[in-house]
Structure formats: C-alpha cells, structure tokens
Amino acid sequence: xxxxxxxxxxxxxxxxxxxxxxxxxxxxxxxxxxxxxxxxxxxxxxxxxxxxxxxxxxxxxxxxxxxxxxxxxxxxxxxxxxxxxxxxxxxxxxxxxxxxxxxxxxxxxxxxxxxxxxxxxxxxxxxxxxxxxxxxxxxxxxxxxxxxxxxxxxxxxxxxxxxxxxxxxxxxxxxxxxxxxxxxxxxxxxxxxxxxxxxxxxxxxxxxxxxxxxxxxxxxxxxxxxxxxxxxxxxxxxxxxxxxxxxxxxxxxxxxxxxxxxxxxxxxxxxxxxxxxxxxxxxxxxxxxxxxxxxxxxxxxxxxxxxxxxxxxxxxxxxxxxxxxxxxxxxxxxxxxxxxxxxxxxxxxxxxxxxxxxxxxxxxxxxxxxxxxxxxxxxxxxxxxxxxxxxxxxxxxxxxxxxxxxxxxxxxxxxxxxxxxxxxxxxxxxxxxxxxxxxxxxxxxxxxxxxxxxxxxxxxxxxxxxxxxxxxxxxxxxxxxxxxxxxxxxxxxxxxxxxxxxxxxxxxxxxxxxxxxxxxxxxxxxxxxxxxxxxxxxxxxxxxxxxxxxxxxxxxxxxxxxxxxxxxxxxxxxxxxxxxxxxxxxxxxxxxxxxxxxxxxxxxxxxxxxxxxxxxxxxxx
Length: 621
Ligand code: MSP
Description:
Elements: E1 5-13, H1 20-39, E2 44-51, H2 55-63, H3 68-85, E3 92-95, H4 99-114, E4 118-128, E5 133-135, E6 153-162, H5 168-177, E7 182-183, H6 185-196, E8 202-203, E9 205-207, E10 216-217, E11 220-225, H7 227-232, H8 234-240, E12 254-258, H9 262-276, E13 284-287, E14 290-291, H10 308-315, H11 317-327, E15 334-335, H12 338-366, H13 386-402, H14 406-427, H15 429-435, H16 437-458, H17 463-474, H18 492-499, H19 519-523, E16 527-538, E17 541-550, E18 555-560, H20 568-571, E19 575-579, E20 585-587, E21 590-592, E22 595-596, E23 598-601, E24 604-607
Parallel strand pairs: 1-2, 1-12, 2-3, 7-13, 12-13, 14-15
Antiparallel strand pairs: 4-5, 4-6, 6-8, 9-11, 10-11, 16-17, 16-19, 17-18, 19-22, 20-21, 23-24
C-alpha cells in the first residue's frame, strides 16, 4: 500500500498574529512539500491550521471585546492571508473549532474512557495560564513557570486524568526500537532523559466554571477538554475528512515542530494514540528558535526595529523564504538580523544568481544566440561531465531534504551557481562571441540549460521568481524579464524608512507589549518643538520628504517617510515635534539629522504638533 507522504506543522494559537517563528515552520513544511513533489516518489499531503480553544484564546478574545468564535474567525482570515503572502500551498487547513475535528476528539475521549484509561481526581498544583498547564512545586523555577518564566497560581480542582504513566514503559521501548522517530538525535536523547523520570498522569479536563471555551467532555457536561489533548488530535482528525479531492491516511510521516513543544508531541501524543488504538506518527522533527541575538542592535534606542514579516511584504516572499531556509541550520537556534538578511540576499541572490541570469539574458539578445538552438549540434563544454555533475547535485539535494537540512541543499545548489559564473567568466562571451561566435553560442546555451536545472532545484524555496526565470528559459525568444533584474540589490537605507515607523522586532511567543522603560531612560531623549521652513520631495524615493526644520538654535535637515500623507507645500510653517538627539543617518543619499514624530496607523501618518503656540526649540517632556 503506498499512501502519501503526510506532513504537518503545529496548529498555532490564534491569540496573536504570525511571527517569524510560525512563519519558519510553515515555510519549512511548504519547502519540504515542494521538494517531495519534485522528487516525487509519493503524493504529498501538507496540513497546517489553528489551535483555537483554551484560555489564551478566550482571554485574547475578551481583550478585543469579541466572542471567542468571532475572534477565531477573524484571526483565521488573517493567518491564511499571511500564508498566502508567503506562498504557502497547504493541502488542508484545519481549525480545532471545526465540527470535523470536535467530533473526532469526543470519539477519541470515549475510546480511552471505555478502556478505563481515564479517572477522576482532586488535584492541587501550580497553574500557568501562559502554558495552560499545571506544574508541581518542584517543577517551578524561582516560583515561576519553568518554560515561559511567567507567574503561576495555586489552584485546586477536580478533574479527569488520563493514565499516561501506564504507557511509560511502552514508549521507552518504542523509542529503543524506532530511534529515527525523533530527530535530530539529540532531541530524542532529551525525550529519553525525560522518560527516565516517572511520568505523571495527564489532566485532560477543565471545569466549565473556569473555562467554557473548549470541546465538551462527552460524559460530563460540567467539563471541557484540555486544549493540548484537543489540539494534538487534529493531526489524526484531519485524515478522516480531508478536503474534496485529497486523500491522506494515518499515521503522519512527519510532524514539524520547534523544541518548545517537544514533550507534548514526543511523549503525550504517541501515548494518547497508542491508548486509543492508533499508530504513533512516524517521525517528529524539532527545530530550534529564531532569536533576537543582538538585543541592543534590534532595540528602539538604535531605531533598528523591524517586523520580520515586513521584509516579505517589502522584498517579496521568495527572498524571505530563501533567507530563513538558508540561515537556520535546521535543528539549531538561529539569530535574526536585518544586516544578515540584506547581506545574504545581496550576496547569494542579487550577486550570484541574479547576475548569472542578467548576464546571460543580456548577451543572449545582444548576440542572438537563439539561432543556434535549432541546429541540434551540442557541445559539452563541461568536459563531458555536465549531466553527471548536475545529477550529482540533484542527488545531494534530495538527500539533504530527506534529512531535513534545507540549508545544506541550498549550499549545494548555490555552489553550482558560482561554478556557472566562473564558467562564463572563463569564456568571456562578451569578447569570444566576436571571435568564435558559434562555439560561444553553444557554450552559453548550455549555461542557460544549467540555469534551468538550478531554477528547478531552487523552485521549492523561491516558487515565484524561479517560475519567472524558467518561463524566460523555456520561452523560445527568451523575452527578458522586466528590467533584467531577478533580484534587485537591497539598499539598507530603504529599510531605515521602516525603522522610523518603530515596528516590532522578532517576537517569540506572540506578546505585543513593549518593554517598560524608566523615566531616566526617557530623559535620554531630546525632544523639541520645531518649525518646518522648507519641504521637498526626494528624487527616486516616493515615501520620503526632505524637511528643513528650525529647532530654535539651529536648522536641521530631516528626512521623513511621510510623502504618502503630506504634500510638501502643506508643511511649510507647521509646528512639529522633533527627536533631536537621534544619530544622523543617510536615507537615499540625503542626510537626516533627527526625526519628526508622528502617529502611525497602518498607512496613515499624522504628524504630532503642539496644542497652542509655544516658542520654537522648547523642550518636550
Ligand atoms: N498551539 C500550540 C501547538 C499545538 S500543536 C497540536 C502552540 N502554538 S504556538 O502558536 O505557540 O506555536 C508554537 C510553534 O511556533 C513552535 O513549535 C514553532 O513551530 C513556532 N515558533 C514559535 N516561536 C518560535 C521561534 N522563535 N522560533 C522558531 N519557531 C518558533 O504551541
């Protein structure tokens, strides 16, 4: 029986919007899906979705003055929209509030209840609202939740418990016999270490008096199901009612998760399945975290704060996908930085790959190499090794993808790109086309064939642009892509425009509350009332205006990203609020010596001013 390759992401909580961590796992799943399709031994089925029950979601809804269902419905639209922007082509999107899931959870509960694997008990413990689970006294670190470091509260409740401990030996034995079922290997060791301690039973209910937002416990109206017990079952329930035209069977081949949810996936989940009479998943891959390493650099004081997903909006999904796949050694933690993003994109994509394309495209047209295409006479300028070499790269890429090392797969392909660039440099076709036109023509057509291989192999990472590139290659007349630039160089100053908007940096855990500062911190800011004496557009920068602002004792030039909201002529004579002691930066070649403050709501920007006349240069405090 050849079922399809079934892979999943976690179901993300809908208490916030997606950030780089969620995006990474989902892009990884999409990339693996596309590679498996490319190498195609089996059909692939890719599932993602949302975890919509539980206290966190119910709290987020209350904060937004929505019912939980309204909140979830709105968030589902937002999450799907982000996935679309990132070119995520899932086969199924499951929400835990869907009837197709709720029914299966209740059946699952009934199965283990009938087997007597559930009992009722009064329990007292330390509850973390953030993690939605109880901890024992000895679990706590400095009296706080040992995972999130957040406060815990003592609670006493009567609840239903699942006899997880009964299956501890079975699971230990299972991992002995199936050592590849959790990767990387060191994660399996963590799981085994965890299983050396006695495993407690799992509290699987929440009294409705405390939390109504959940799937009812089928045999007791006063309770709903613990959110993790509900959410994990999605991977199974999605197989019973897949979208029309799709088929998928249990067990899953691969659950992609990050290390934060290893225990729930590698301990609770296989035991739950085993108790209910189903097979465990074949493999779990736990990757590391995206970290904001150089906090100072990403902090407000440096003005260097950017939401990672904004990069995808600004530079296209493909460059963002490439960056996260290339930069993280899957399994380890990785550091996100804007600098790193710009360097990576400029060197690998603008320089190596982009140049390869634009050189070939330009010369192809200049020397009309198309005429050699039909003749059928081919020379192998790679000394007979071309096909062999390309096949070897393809095999290596396949191996790396099977081992979930996309960064290595990319390295293999980019090495080929660099080799092709060397090949062209060696030929110097811009010269040799004049001396030996035919031989040069054939050699360059071969290079274009190789570029097609490259594009095919990179398409799972960058589906949009590789499609364009392949269209150019396949097109007989090779109509050049607009502007000949596949990957324009990124200019760091373009990003500084956003820095002024004060967007959030990498945000693990979905909290949107800024760090608190003291009054002393605030005193470091020199803010004054200024008067605009001149305003003009900046050539080639449609969001920027260059202002001359009188700040009392001097006139400053300030570049502001307000051109979409203000005409230069309306600004002259306006009182503005200026952050005076901001380190000067060059934006699009113009020096900016300070920042005008504005209220920013989406695309609307409204300058701050004074309520009444005050002297120019007066301090704001
Ligand atoms: N709802 C649970 C999962 C239930 S699965 C049946 C949950 N949701 S979550 O929204 O918190 O998402 C956790 C997942 O998001 C991680 O496992 C990982 O896939 C991703 N990430 C969140 N922050 C991350 C980083 N900073 N870095 C990398 N990925 C992380 O837990």
